[in-house]
Amino acid sequence: MHVKKGDEVLVISGKEKGKKGTIKQSIPTDSRVVVEGLNKVKRHTRPRGVGQMGGIVEQEAPLHVSNVMLICPKCGRASRTGHRFLEATDAKGRAKKVRFCKSCDAAIDE
To answer: Structure pTM?
Structure first.
């Protein structure tokens, strides 16, 4: 997936088109992300256990990852991303893989 938890994204399609938010949860098995404060749905819950109230709860529903675009922290624009290997190595001796912004060519993960 081209985005991960904590990234700021722009929604590019659907009913929330044009809105920005931060990724709250990533679900890679389904290729979906939950964006904080966007794609709200109402869920009707029944009381579970003693002293717990039932009612209508509003919560964020997952969006497909293809409907969001990463906002580059350097240039501040929504842009496509790519992957690149750095000369620095990780603990196992492998080259470090980072995402980069295709607009300004700056590394996103460092």
So the answer is: 0.81
Same domain, yes or no, for 17 and 55?
yes
| In a domain? residue 106 | yes
Same domain? For 16 and 64 the reply is yes
| Per-residue model confidence as pLDDT tens for the chain (110 residues) | 899 999 999 999 999 999 999 999 999 999 999 999 999 999 999 998 888 889 999 999 999 999 999 999 999 999 999 999 988 888 888 888 899 999 999 998 77
Computed on alpha carbons and rounded to an integer, the radius of gyration of the chain in Å comes to 18
CA distance 67 to 40: 16
Q: Quick check: helix, strand or coil at residue 67?
A: helix
Buried-exposed string 31-69: b where 16+ CB fall within 10 A, e elsewhere: ebbbbeebbeeeeeeeeeeeeeeeeeeeebebbebebbb
User: Within a domain: residue 1?
Assistant: no
